[in-house]
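TICKET: design request
STATUS: open
ATTACHED STRUCTURE:
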């Protein structure tokens, strides 16, 4: 290939990576600061939860009149990667930002990953027209957009880059995309650092030796985390299908859902299960949680997102996994912080079919000392969580796909 052309391609892709990384990092920094503000306002003015139905109606009307093309959210990114059709509208970014802030301000239970990934992915896809990229290069844009959003919102650049590659089916991705994904993830991460926006830190102070007994306990816990991931995915899809089937006018879905949520929050008498739930996650690393904490978070988050509120699923998955792991420390003879940390990433692994990214995320968040325990649990949760994850449009391939296909063929032969 012509050296001049090589140099041009190098400069072009470096420019794209830097631009997407900086834009995504700035967007995530603004989003994180805004999210913290609305969360604190809600916690100090609990009466605002009674306005959740009106907040839901605003979100519903906003998407009904202006965001019909982008209402699929993360699933739209996955669909455009698998079958490119048209450039993702840039309005996805402000719409999901506004929708998520409204959700958290008034008391919905949701996360933040979906917002950051959608903002970043929408901004990244605009470079397709700017540089007249083909469909193959456009896939690379979507990958680096997802990696930048994930890395910047959680402060985990390695996991962000790997998540983007793994969630889009690792083996079909080019070497160029792998390199660019890591570059962009780190640029987005350092951009958030530049704005001095802090991420939550967790600690696993005691990590025991990996004995045969401990290995078996981790297998048992991993199966539990995988089944919990399956329950979360199916619950979210159930509520979404229920609302869409029974309420034909989309803006009314979050209105009615918000009304039910506000009443439910009033009767349980706590805001523990709404919003991100970061204080509870942090507490689970040192204090044993109740057996119902993870179940109520599944119920509240699945209902919130199923009704049409905006946000992500990942931070609620962290809550669910950490509180379940904390509770299991009563029965499993392992340190509470270790089980909380393992659950934190293992439930996420099962729900997104991304065991490699989740293992690396555990290493980035908790240190390398616990990575073997985390890796085992993430892989076990991945295989035991079923074929349905939180993203409708995700193509499930890799080891899990082949295993399930083999089991299906065997069952047919036996029949």
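STATUS: resolved
RESOLUTION: sequence designed for all positions
ATTACHED SEQUENCE:
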């Amino acid at each position: 290939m012509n050296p001049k052309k090589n140099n041009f391609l190098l400069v072009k892709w470096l420019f794209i990576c830097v631009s997407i990384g900086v834009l995504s990092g700035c967007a995530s920094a603004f989003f994180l600061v805004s999210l913290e503000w609305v969360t604190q306002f809600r916690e100090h003015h609990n009466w605002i939860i009674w306005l959740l139905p009106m907040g839901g109606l605003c979100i519903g009307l906003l998407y009904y009149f202006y965001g019909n093309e982008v209402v699929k959210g993360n699933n739209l990114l996955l669909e455009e990667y698998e079958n490119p059709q048209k450039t993702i509208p840039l309005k996805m970014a402000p719409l999901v930002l506004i929708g998520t802030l409204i959700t958290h301000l008034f008391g919905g239970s949701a996360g933040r990953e979906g917002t950051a990934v959608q903002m970043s992915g929408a901004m990244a896809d605009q470079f397709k027209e700017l540089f007249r990229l083909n469909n193959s290069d456009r896939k690379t844009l979507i990958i680096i957009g997802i990696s930048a959003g994930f890395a910047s919102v959680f402060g985990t650049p390695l996991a962000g880059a790997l998540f983007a590659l793994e969630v889009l089916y690792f083996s079909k991705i080019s070497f160029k995309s792998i390199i660019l994904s890591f570059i962009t993830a780190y640029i987005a991460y350092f951009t958030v650092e530049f704005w001095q926006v802090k991420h939550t830190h967790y600690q696993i102070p005691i990590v025991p030796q990996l004995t045969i007994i401990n290995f078996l306990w981790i297998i048992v816990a991993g199966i539990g985390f995988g089944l919990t991931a399956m329950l979360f995915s199916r619950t979210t899809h159930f509520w979404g299908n229920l609302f869409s089937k029974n309420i034909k006018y989309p803006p009314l879905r979050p209105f009615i859902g918000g009304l039910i949520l506000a009443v439910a929050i009033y009767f349980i008498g706590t805001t523990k299960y709404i919003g991100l739930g970061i204080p509870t996650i942090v507490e689970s690393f040192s204090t044993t949680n109740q057996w119902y904490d993870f179940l109520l978070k599944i119920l509240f988050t699945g209902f919130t997102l199923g009704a049409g509120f905006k946000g992500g699923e990942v931070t609620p998955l962290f809550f669910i996994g950490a509180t379940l792991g904390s509770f299991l420390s009563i029965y499993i003879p392992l340190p509470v912080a270790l089980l909380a940390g393992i659950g934190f990433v293992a439930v996420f692994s099962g729900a997104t079919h991304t065991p490699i990214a989740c293992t690396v995320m555990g290493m980035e968040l908790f240190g390398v000392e616990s990575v073997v325990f985390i890796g085992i649990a993430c892989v076990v949760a991945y295989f035991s969580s079923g074929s349905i994850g939180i993203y409708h449009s995700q193509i499930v391939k890799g080891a899990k796909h082949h295993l399930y296909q083999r089991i299906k063929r065997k069952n047919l032969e036996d029949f």
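CLOSING REMARK: The mean pLDDT is 93. The two ends are 56 Å apart (CA to CA).
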